[in-house]
Amino acid sequence: MTEQPTGVAETLEPLVSRLLAPNPSPFTNTGTQVHLVGATDLAVIDPGPDTPEHIDALIAAIAGRPVAAIVITHTHRDHSPGSRPLKAATGAPIIGCAPLAFDDSGPRADASFDHDYAPDRVLAEGESVAGQGWTLTALATPGHTSNHLCFALPETKALFTGDHVMGWSTSIVSPPDGDMADYMRSLDKLMQRDDRIYYPAHGDPVENPQRLVRGMMGHRKQREGQIVRLLREETRAIPGMVERMYVGIDPRLFPAAERSVLAHLIDLRNRGLVVEQGDAWSIVKD
């Protein structure tokens, strides 16, 4: 990860710049990356948290240029709340994913949903918003959340991946809204594309996206294999599986790991491979 100061716009290519929000954590890495697309008029993708310091920095980066759209990939609280003060300051419409008022039982406060998110326009698969010299086309990528969208910039073959594909870690898939089967299908969907570069909401740009996505799919399949092997040995509860599977990780990440293991188990259960027995899980015998 390259060193990047918060609140300072950095040009990534002529049509794209980014600004880092001041919300670092074990789950957001250095913070949420806000992307500005365009030269004369702008789209602001995932404006981030609603804090005065951050919104002031974002408005300074906009530098008086008209904002054509505030574009949202999904409604976790480290992504969409800044849309409201930014709309008030610029008059721009909020466009992107559908609202999702959901009580997430996941492991982190910033992963709970933004219940006040109110888009002016919801984009379906293949629908676009455009400005001078740029187009952003929605790509439905459920899994991390059920309402997650990525946005393709066909003018430069870039893809803004939100939290679906990040530049520093794999995404948390936290049931009941997060769905591992959907997540894997969405990764496979990206494998069928030929994007040149990914711009994620956390971490650096991904310059070899196909290789990363292939590795992420392999990693998830490896985790699934670990779970199956552990359950072939004996019936187990999720915390015990996490201790065996995630050796050496920051203990603060254990709750997130438990959510991902649960997502794998639900997928395996739906495929008839495991069964739930109270707080424990066991393999379906051949």
UniProtKB/TrEMBL annotation:
CDD domains: metallo-hydrolase-like_MBL-fold. SMART domains: Lactamase_B. SUPFAM superfamilies: Metallo-hydrolase/oxidoreductase (SSF56281). Keywords: Hydrolase. Gene3D superfamilies: Ribonuclease Z/Hydroxyacylglutathione hydrolase-like, Winged helix-like DNA-binding domain superfamily/Winged helix DNA-binding domain. GO terms for molecular function: hydrolase activity. This is MBL fold metallo-hydrolase.
